[in-house]
Amino acid sequence: MIIDRVEAIPYRIPMRKPLHFASGDLAEMEHVLLRLTTSDGVVGVADVPPRPYTYGETQASVIDAIQNLFAPALIGTDARDRSAVHAAMHRTVGNVTAKGAVDIALWDIVGKSLGVSVHRLLGGYADSLRVSHMVGFASASEMVAEALAYRERYGVEVFKVKVGRRPITLDVEACRALREELGPDVELYLDANRGWTAVEAMQVLDATRDLGLTFFEEPCDAAEVIGRRRLVAHSHIPVVADESAPTLGDAARELTTGGATALSIKTARTGFTLSQKLLALAEGLGVEVIMGNQIDSQVGSTATLVFGAAFAHSSRRAAELSNFLDMTDDLAAEPLHIADGRMAVPDRPGVGVDIDEQKLASYRLDGKLS
Amino acid sequence: MIIDRVEAIPYRIPMRKPLHFASGDLAEMEHVLLRLTTSDGVVGVADVPPRPYTYGETQASVIDAIQNLFAPALIGTDARDRSAVHAAMHRTVGNVTAKGAVDIALWDIVGKSLGVSVHRLLGGYADSLRVSHMVGFASASEMVAEALAYRERYGVEVFKVKVGRRPITLDVEACRALREELGPDVELYLDANRGWTAVEAMQVLDATRDLGLTFFEEPCDAAEVIGRRRLVAHSHIPVVADESAPTLGDAARELTTGGATALSIKTARTGFTLSQKLLALAEGLGVEVIMGNQIDSQVGSTATLVFGAAFAHSSRRAAELSNFLDMTDDLAAEPLHIADGRMAVPDRPGVGVDIDEQKLASYRLDGKLS
Asked: In this structure, which of A44, A150, B14, B50 has its CB flanked by the most CB atoms within 10 Å?
């Protein structure tokens, strides 16, 4: 399983409709497809979503990091020597989605080489996950219409509501409308993407107390150190660390110093290896996790699905897996499906994604032939 | 003072000798020169040192961030509208040295436009700073020889000793040799660049207790959350946060949650505006600061000097200003000098650096003419 080729391929696929949330907007998916090829022809694949407003990475920075910082540690290395690759990548700070993809592609090679699904290699707990759908910024009636449509069409019963707008009544009213129109049995939780101050977030908690919300993700910037701790201490629902905890150390610090009481795990940034550590940390410290979405393609969403379903602790809550539905197309050869509010884990060797070479050729930005 | 041109120019200047430290090595300075030009022809200048092992930035990522993420907020903006530029840059996470340089270049334009030095605009406290010289990894005798040579030649009496090697006796012996050969009056402090675990760092503190060291910078990775707090609580000297506190929020969190008891401020990553906030935070919380060096060129070192000397709290300790002596050349037209262990603040409008256009033409990597 010796790696002898590293490709970081920039590509662009338009969104069906642009996404709006407190930390950014997204009209096109400008991602990087990572392919690691071994000397015996096995290809490991992973998708890299550069998110400058979340991690500071860009398409150019991802490609530079993979080609010039990580490739020297990958070429000539056995894909099973994951720890050695991680030690080498650890010398570079940040670049989390580039690192996450390297890890996923290594696991993909191991699974394909053994003819086993990575889902089973990791633990194989469940064969499907409940799906949580993210409702982005819109008018309250549009947000309700979107949630109703997803429930009708896909059977989704869990919704993450993007909030963080001003005045806060905008979002409070949207939440109230969602609860009223969807009924008491649908699960609703909030993600402010650092859009509010801790004081505003506290007002929102008070104003929505009767709505039965389950989580409050990144209500304010974790950099608002004292306000955040006051909020976490007073919140009646868990405060989820997402972008404030992109690494094991960050997660440990936030959870042990009063910055958060739950954790979002995203394979796009922590791959499988580091995601396992985060999951163990969360389980050990007694906090819940949500499998999050980095606005992932189907290639990326499959990695989240495969990981989340592999363990009991990560499969308890609905996983955020539906963002790919907003893309006009995808590189994955086999489309993912959501039915009865669930997504089934693919039963194929490796992570379970095959790339459609014709689509890759048409969406890639580097002008090369596949 | 309307900005109408943004240039991010990659260049490379070899080092006289390669630098070795726990988090990285450096044989060539591959930096980016940032130039902002206003419609009335004033040019603001700053140097960007990409350090993948400290911040995850590369030359390519810096150029992409400046040209594609920050330039749209800069073009057409008045250089005095610094807060608006910062608000726009704040939407991008990380990219700290790219952001720091934008801030310094804005201040440079304001100073030059007013015909006033930025040193004076900031506060103008002192007209020179004591210099601390960094002694990199080598044998104990070579490290002693370097320190003696710097004292002899430049009058430097403060040395930062790079540590973090294994076995720890290597560095303990180097510290002992430095103290014995340099005498009791020279100031010595340590920087492990996260090279040790908290347990190793505690052993070093014990083994060097009689040597009169003054600070212990990044003794272990701040991500080693509980070990780090135990170390900080037990250390008889202040533990300095450097790469663990590159932003205001990080610094606040480390200082208020037991991760550090002193702060390194580097204008390369926090420019002047955010460095002022960090300085105020440190002063307010009652911890000392050290003006640090990002292995800066003379262009970058001048910014550190100008800022550090502008305030009482940042001019108390010797500033790390001598790394540029290891470069074979520099883009600055007027060389900096260290004499009697001090460096004088340039008395020129703006930050005080003029670029040698011939040198820039010869070292730039983008093949363009100046």
From this structure: A44
Element of type H or E holding A232: helix A225-234
The model's pTM: 0.94
Q: Look up the CATH number of the domain holding residue B54.
A: 3.30.390.10
List chain B residues with CB under 8 Å of A93. Answer: 52-56, 243
Q: Which two tokens stand for residue A181?
A: 């129109």
Do A164 and A94 fall within a single domain? Answer: no
Backbone angles phi, psi at B308, to 5 degrees: -55, -40
Which of A25, A30, A27, A24 is closest to A12 using CA atoms? A30
- Which residues, 6+ apart, have CB-to-CB distance to A217 below 8 Å? A160, A189, A190, A191, A192, A193, A239, A240, A242, A264, A290
Establish if B203 touches chain A: CB-CB under 8 angstroms.
Answer: no
Helix (H, G, I), strand (E, B) or coil at A10: strand
Judge whether A181 is closer than 8 Å to chain B, CB to CB: no
Return the active site residues of B: 162, 191, 217, 242, 266, 294
Q: Is residue A61 domain-resident? A: yes
Let me know whether A95 and A179 are in one domain.
no
Number of domains making up chain B: 2
Q: Do A61 and B64 contact (CB within 8 A), yes or no?
A: yes
Contact A55 B91 (CB under 8 A): no
Residue B137 sits in the same domain as residue B175: yes
Decide if A60 and B55 are in contact by the 8 Å CB cutoff: no
d(CA A150, CA A144): 10
**ipTM for the whole complex:** 0.89
Look at B93 and A64 and tell me if their CB atoms are within 8 Å: no
d(CA A94, CA A70): 13
Give yes or no: A191 in active site.
yes
What does the alpha-carbon distance between residue A343 and residue A321 come to, in Å, rounded to a whole number? 8
Q: How many CB atoms lie within 10 A of CB A288?
A: 17
- Do A172 and A301 fall within a single domain? yes
Say if A92 is an interface residue toward chain B (CB within 8 Å): yes
Report the DSSP beta bridge partners of residue A345.
none
DSSP secondary-structure letter at A69? I
- The range of the structural domain enclosing residue A42 comes to 3-115
**At which of B95, B115, B135 does a domain end?**
B115
Distances (CA, A) of A109 to A42, B76, B208, B253: 6, 50, 48, 40
In the set A103, A146, A157, A242, the catalytic residue is A242
Per residue of chain A (370 residues), what is the pLDDT tens digit?
999 999 999 999 999 988 888 887 888 999 999 999 999 999 999 999 999 999 999 999 999 999 999 999 999 999 999 999 999 999 999 999 999 999 999 999 999 999 999 999 999 999 999 999 999 999 999 999 999 999 999 999 999 999 999 999 999 999 999 999 999 999 999 999 999 999 999 999 999 999 999 999 999 999 999 999 999 999 999 999 999 999 999 999 999 999 999 999 999 999 999 999 999 999 999 999 999 999 999 999 999 999 999 999 999 999 999 999 999 999 999 999 999 999 999 999 999 999 999 999 999 999 876 5
* Cis, peptide link before residue A18, omega less than 30° from 0: no
Nearest residue on chain B to A56, judged by CA atoms? B93
A253 lies within 8 A of chain B by CB = yes
Residue in B92, B252, B256 closest to A53 by CB: B92
Q: What single DSSP character describes residue B2?
A: B
